Automatic annotation (TrEMBL):
Residues annotated as domain Calcineurin-like phosphoesterase: 4-81
Protein name per the record: Phosphodiesterase, MJ0936 family protein
Pfam families associated with the record: Metallophos_2 (PF12850)
Gene3D superfamilies: 3.60.21.10
Length: 91
């Protein structure tokens, strides 16, 4: 059996307060595979890599180092045979 890896990508909106809740809501509503998705969202420029209620939440921070980020960061995701790896790159 091949497992499905589902990514949901959204910019993110609104104030930093409630950001995770809005991102999780978007991930759950857009992923219809029955598998917990991985969601990549931005907007706050704060780097995040955590699992909340089964959903892996990623925020690359800022690819340009824009405030409040202290340096440029991004994630690279690789998917192979139903498994994924996420690597943080920094400048």
């Amino acid at each position: 059996m091949i497992e499905v890896v589902t990514f949901v990508v959204t910019h993110g909106t609104g104030s930093p307060d409630g950001w995770r809740d809005r991102v999780l809501e978007t991930a759950r509503s857009e992923a219809d595979t029955g598998v917990d998705p991985i969601v990549a969202a931005g907007h706050t420029h704060g780097r995040v890599d955590e699992t909340v209620a089964g959903v892996r939440v990623l925020n690359p921070g800022s690819e340009t180092g824009a405030s409040p980020a202290e340096r440029a960061t991004m994630y690279v995701a690789t998917v192979e045979d139903g498994e994924y790896e996420v690597v943080l790159l920094t400048a």
